Amino acid sequence: MPPIFIEQSGQTIPQHARTYIVYLVTPLSGLGDYGYRSRMETKRHAGSVMSSLSYCAIDFETANEHRGSPCAVGLTRVEGGHVTESVVYLMRPPEEVDYFEDFNVALHGITPSMVKKQPRFAERLPEILEFAKGHPLVAHNAAFDLGVIADAARLSGGDVPSLDFACTLVLARKTYNLLSYRLPFVAEAAGVKIENHHDPADDAHAAAEILLAIAEHHGAGDFEALCDATKCKMGRLTDSSRQGFVSAGAQKLQLPGANPDADPSHPLYGSEIAFTGALLTMSRQQAFDLVAQIGAQPETTVTKKTDFLVLGQQDPTRLKPGAELSSKAQKAEELRAKGQRIELLGEDDFLRMISL
Length: 356
Prior knowledge:
- With 356 residues, the chain is an alpha/beta fold.
- The protein has 2 domains: 6-247, 2-Layer Sandwich (Nucleotidyltransferase, domain 5), CATH 3.30.420.10; 272-355, Rossmann fold, CATH 3.40.50.10190.
- The chain has helices spanning 102-108, 112-115, 121-132, 142-155, 168-175, 183-190, 200-217, 223-230, 284-293, 327-337, 347-355; strands at residues 6-8, 11-13, 26-27, 35-39, 55-62, 70-79, 82-90, 137-139, 163-167, 232-233, 235-237, 242-243, 246-247, 272-276, 297-299, 308-311, 343-346.
- A 9-stranded mixed β-sheet has the order 3-4-7-6-5-8-9-11-12, with helices on both faces. It has a 4-stranded parallel β-sheet with strand order 15-14-16-17, with helices on both faces. A two-stranded antiparallel ribbon has the order 1-2.
- The radius of gyration is 21 Å and the shape is globular.
């Protein structure tokens, strides 16, 4: 299909900023020139599992390196196991981080001029939640997309909404044996077509279809059955806490050695990596195993040999009285002050570096 452009109120919006088109896209009355919606149905294979799964897949694109700088979001709603509707919204990031980096623009094609007349994130959030209809959110690398909501809400001076969520990145690792679990590779494994990676509409639609494919693979007709089959538990975001969509059940951590046959050109090869806080997309053991696989050495503590500290979500109740950082983060800051080069990574940055 050739590139599609939609013109509304004198503004031409490229494919990067329009809804995923299945049959026909028309402007939705009341949305003006900043949102488009399409209705669609998912064709399921004969003999597929009867599904009561209802959720809203979500994919944000950001204006710059700050996770709280959303400039567009794609949403695809699934009801009763069928994709029913998709929408994309443009927005301005919160004022504090309202600028565009060339790298991000090159990635998704959304420019400052395209969003200059759009509402800020704080005004968009109610529309996003209304579209989701109270269903759980689903994202590929939910740590990033749920992190966008949390960070942008706080930068906007508002409360973080309470949301249940699932992560197709975590579920894909439980379902497929792949060299990479980036969205295009998982989509291919799930038999889902994705034409324009980093188009928020296409990525959200792909995540929606991927979860349906994974649920069918496991014979699961609802989230409870899917979590049982994959030994995961639903994620939960609130204004005061974040519980990731991770493997259920406690396990004794095993510290694997670095893979001697890993590619030495990988940017993390040969480094020592420690973790603090809870990860949203994987268990600590899975993180250790990924680090070792690419030729780095996972560590349980921060030492003078540590090169990276990955910052997960910190439970305030586990901090020492009066402390704002975990003991590992404090140790890293002390070593940095003495000249040691320790880089602090958020979970989404860690995932991007792992997949390079």
